[in-house]
Amino acid sequence: MQALQAWSRYAAPTDQLLLLADPPPTRGRTPATPNVRWVGRSNRPELYYRAADVVLADALGFTGCELVANGVPVIASVTPDPGRAVRVGFAERMDMLERTGLLTRTHADEGPAALWDSVREMRGRADDPAPGDVWAAPLDVATRILGHGRTS
């Protein structure tokens, strides 16, 4: 909901928001927003990821790592469900991704303006990546993250 509020307030008419999720129940009424499209669940999300300037993803899954491996800037939503287990190494993985400049975190208690600031920041990184080791090669970042904790 935070993303939709940010989009409706701050996006330009030519910006497009594609949601790879099922729309929420609306009791027979679908909100009409011309630049928002509910794509639904996809068995080929990478097609959408490649075309994206920025992706808002669930931080608790491995989608953020997949996006980093493909060089797509990520806004990771850190909103754990009370009954959902947080994997060992989660905080370290998020810290590593954030240090590369490929990922930033957001929380459910942040308002739409803060989320939109993150969108603008990450879009800028996609258009003009920082030099040096701030913007690392995506495959190198993913290899370090996925190899974290291994001894060999």
3D structure, described in words:
- The structure is a single chain.
- The protein has six helices and five strands, in the order H-E-E-H-E-H-E-H-E-H-H.
- Helix 1 (2-10) packs across helix 5 (112-127) and helix 3 (63-69) runs antiparallel to helix 6.
- Strand 3, helix 3 and strand 4 form a beta-alpha-beta unit.
- The strands form two sheets. It has a three-stranded parallel β-sheet with strand order 3-4-5, sandwiched between helices. A two-stranded parallel sheet has the order 1-2.
- The radius of gyration is 16 Å and the shape is globular.
- By secondary structure, the protein is an alpha/beta fold.
- It has helices spanning 2-10, 45-51, 63-69, 90-100, 112-127, 138-146; strands spanning 17-19, 36-38, 55-58, 74-77, 103-106.
- It starts with a helix and ends in a 6-residue tail after the last helix.
